[in-house]
């Protein structure tokens, strides 16, 4: 039977955190009801929560407005019978002062599935290349060698001056940006975009690319930090499924299924 408390226990946690799981298991064993606030679902309050506690890790456990600390501090409290009973007695007698903790509106939670999805931010140069394919990209070359998807620097500058109403310098800078973003490459390797008669190849017709390069992405590339954060979230998701309730034991059966 749950403890009859006037007060509130709040656990700030994240998905798959072993220390969070251990703390919550003990609260369940002690029949202490608690409010679990996952900071991965409420990222907009994370900085404020960290600033209030002075901690950069989770769990962060509060008994009313009093910060108990992380899992180690909480386990120490539970193991001290006198201190634990006093903490529970305070919760039985005293309610959480209004506004003393950051309790987010449930409607502001992030959709959990979105945590593991890479959002596509359309790449402006991908759209530009598609327009070029319709207007100026065509087979070019001579008898000995031809190129299916090629364009000249001069044609590009003339075309973009008309389409985008840019000055010539800005048109050349845009051509160089296509090279820098790996949407095109100069036929003569190692040269910059000059906007003259030199030929440029779209990535899919550049035989010097990686064998598994495929076509270009229509999305802005993600940074290593962004991809690393997504990988971290996926690992924590696996932890949440395969870690034991106390966060100490992992079942590796899923690696072989």
UniProtKB/TrEMBL annotation:
SMART domains for this protein: DEP
Lineage: Eukaryota, Metazoa, Spiralia, Lophotrochozoa, Mollusca
Domain DEP: start-end pairs: 146-204
Origin species: Elysia chlorotica
MF-aspect GO terms: electron transfer activity
CDD domains reported for this sequence: DEP
PROSITE patterns tied to this protein: DEP, GLUTAREDOXIN_1, GLUTAREDOXIN_2, PROKAR_LIPOPROTEIN
GO BP term (any one): intracellular signal transduction
Physiological role: Has a glutathione-disulfide oxidoreductase activity in the presence of NADPH and glutathione reductase. Reduces low molecular weight disulfides and proteins.
InterPro entries: DEP_dom, GLR_AS, Glutaredoxin, Glutaredoxin_subgr, Grx-like_ET, Thioredoxin-like_sf, WH-like_DNA-bd_sf, WH_DNA-bd_sf
Keyword Disulfide bond tagged: yes
Name of the featured protein: DEP domain-containing protein
Domain of life the protein comes from: Eukaryota
Keyword Heme part of the UniProt annotation: no
Keyword terms, alphabetized: Disulfide bond, Redox-active center
């Amino acid at each position: 039977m749950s403890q009859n408390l006037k007060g509130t226990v709040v656990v700030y946690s994240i998905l798959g955190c072993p220390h969070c799981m251990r703390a919550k298991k003990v609260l369940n064993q002690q029949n202490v009801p608690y409010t679990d606030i996952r900071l991965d679902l409420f990222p907009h309050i994370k900085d404020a929560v960290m600033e209030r506690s002075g901690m950069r890790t989770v769990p962060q456990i509060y008994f009313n407005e009093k910060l108990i600390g992380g899992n180690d501090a909480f386990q120490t409290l539970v193991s001290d019978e006198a201190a634990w009973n006093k903490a529970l007695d305070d919760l039985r007698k005293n309610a959480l002062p209004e506004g003393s903790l950051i309790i987010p509106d449930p409607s502001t939670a992030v959709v959990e599935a979105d945590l593991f999805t890479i959002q596509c931010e359309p790449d402006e140069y991908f759209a530009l290349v598609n327009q070029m394919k319709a207007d100026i990209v065509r087979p070019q070359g001579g008898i000995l060698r031809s190129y299916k998807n090629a364009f000249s620097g001069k044609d590009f500058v003339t075309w973009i001056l008309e389409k985008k109403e840019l000055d010539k310098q800005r048109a050349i800078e845009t051509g160089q940006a296509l090279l820098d973003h790996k949407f095109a490459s100069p036929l003569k390797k190692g040269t910059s975009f000059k906007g003259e008669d030199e030929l440029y190849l779209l990535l899919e017709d550049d035989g010097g690319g990686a064998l598994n390069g495929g076509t270009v992405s229509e999305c802005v590339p993600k940074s290593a930090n962004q991809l690393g954060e997504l990988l971290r979230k996926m690992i924590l998701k696996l932890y949440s499924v395969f870690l034991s309730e106390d966060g100490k034991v992992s079942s590796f059966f899923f690696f072989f299924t």
